[in-house]
UniProtKB/TrEMBL annotation:
Residue ranges of domain Major facilitator superfamily (MFS) profile in the record: 209-405
Family matches, as InterPro entries: MFS (IPR011701), MFS_dom (IPR020846), MFS_trans_sf (IPR036259)
PANTHER family: MAJOR FACILITATOR SUPERFAMILY PROTEIN, MFS PERMEASE
Keyword annotations: Membrane, Transmembrane, Transmembrane helix
SUPFAM superfamilies: MFS general substrate transporter
Keyword match Acyltransferase: no
Organism encoding this protein: Microbulbifer harenosus
Transmembrane segments: 12-34, 46-70, 77-99, 105-129, 141-160, 172-195, 216-236, 256-276, 283-302, 308-332, 344-366, 372-390
Protein name: MFS transporter
């Protein structure tokens, strides 16, 4: 891999962190408005959260193509393609809220699909930062880029609050214009990213993917990453609509989402150091435990503080679970295998997340918020048991820097 100077590394991390913040704000807009707009446009309440599920489907379906673009043309090309999808998502949402009936609903679903495609690209920011630094700094570089999401936790909800009444009819139209503008600004920031060009073997060298994904370490990373993200999305998708159903204001819901996103990303300033000191597996288990605690808090009541603390603890759990899993993925591949392995990991994570997202709205509409919370516990228990078994059975694996046969 082409070496980058210390200045280029710092420039990349700064730009990727800012782009992470802007893209995170786009995702917050989707989650803050998706279920409410979906409920207004959908032909049946059962489809209210479908736009958010389509958002996750967009992530899952676009992860592998994004990896292919990055492997052949470089990560920056993939980044700019994603930002373009983000602009399109905002503009399509504007058109959708002006269209009456089912046509507007399905157009809004299309807009959230493109929003998911943008989010799929943003997922690779963390790996891009880690790939461009020396091995000892990979976990910290990954964490610092993810820390950009702290700003998203402030900017995203406030973007909704500042714009939702600027053009009161139709609802959120100014918000969606702002969503497109923020994605365009992200593209401008990403133009200055300087990353090594992919080498000829980057998309075809190394071990077969089937061999890599059978490693106990990879299985542990993909399992924890998938469950952490799936349950985070499962609960976060339902929470704004559940608050609305319990008579709480949109402003209260937006504030809850703001603290949730801050909790998702604020620990990233030190998660990398935790991983370096205690190991990725311990940090992953801590994340799963916190997600369980968040669901337990939600079961204690349906007042605004219960929802807020559920979302805050959920964000903390996601951070430790997902970043721990991401750091473990970095130990599973050599340099020439990285694009395929990282893309496959994210594909597994977000395919499972999409399935959970589809279930969330239906369970909430039919059975209520408490059932959504109870459903979270079995996957957590199964994952913790599976990780314990895998850890006991895992054999030492060669370092990616060592020859592998």
């Amino acid at each position: 891999m082409q070496e980058l100077s210390a200045r280029e590394q710092r420039n990349n991390i700064w730009r990727l962190a800012v782009a992470q913040a802007l893209a995170g704000a786009n995702s917050v807009v989707a989650y803050a408005t998706g279920a409410i707009v979906g409920n207004n446009l959908a032909p049946t309440p059962l489809l209210a959260t479908l736009p958010l599920s389509i958002f996750v489907v967009g992530m899952a379906l676009c992860i592998l193509p994004v990896g292919a673009i990055a492997g052949r043309y470089g990560r920056r090309a993939a980044f700019l393609s994603g930002a373009g999808a983000g602009v399109l998502a905002g503009l399509l949402a504007v058109v959708a809220v002006y269209v009456d009936g089912a046509s507007g609903f399905w157009l809004f679903c299309l807009s959230t699909f493109f929003g998911g495609a943008y989010a799929a690209v943003v997922l690779s920011f963390r790996f891009a930062a880690a790939d461009a630094v020396e091995p000892a700094r990979k976990a910290q570089a990954l964490s610092m880029v993810m820390a950009g999401g702290v700003a998203a936790g402030v900017v995203g909800p406030q973007l909704v609050n500042w714009t939702m009444d600027l053009m009161p009819q139709p609802m959120f139209v100014a918000t969606f214009y702002a969503q497109a503008a923020v994605a365009a600004l992200s593209a401008f920031i990403l133009i200055g990213v300087r990353l090594p060009r992919p080498v000829a073997t980057a998309h075809r060298g190394g071990r077969p993917l089937a061999v890599i994904v059978r490693q106990p370490r990879f299985i542990a990373a993909a399992t924890c990453g998938a469950i952490s993200y799936t349950l985070m999305n499962f609960l976060m998708t339902a929470a704004p609509l559940a608050m609305h159903m319990h008579g709480h204001s949109t402003a209260s819901s937006n504030l809850g989402l703001q603290w949730h996103v801050i909790a998702m990303f604020a620990p990233s300033f030190f998660t990398g150091k935790f991983i370096a000191r205690f190991g990725a597996e311990r940090v992953m288990l801590l994340g799963l435990l916190l997600i369980g605690v968040s669901a337990a808090v939600g079961l204690m009541g349906a007042q605004v503080p219960h929802f807020w603390w559920t979302l805050i603890l959920l964000g903390l759990g996601w951070n430790f679970g997902f970043l721990g899993a991401s750091a473990l993925v970095l130990e599973c591949h050599s340099d020439e295998e990285k694009t395929r392995v990282q893309s496959m990991n994210d594909f597994i994570v977000f395919t499972l997340m999409a399935l959970g997202s589809f279930a969330s709205g239906g369970i909430l509409s039919v059975y209520g918020w408490n059932t959504v919370l109870w459903v979270s516990f079995p996957p957590l228990a199964i994952t913790v048991i599976a990780l314990a078994i895998l850890r006991l059975r895992a054999k030492p694996t060669p370092s990616p820097a060592e020859p592998v046969g």
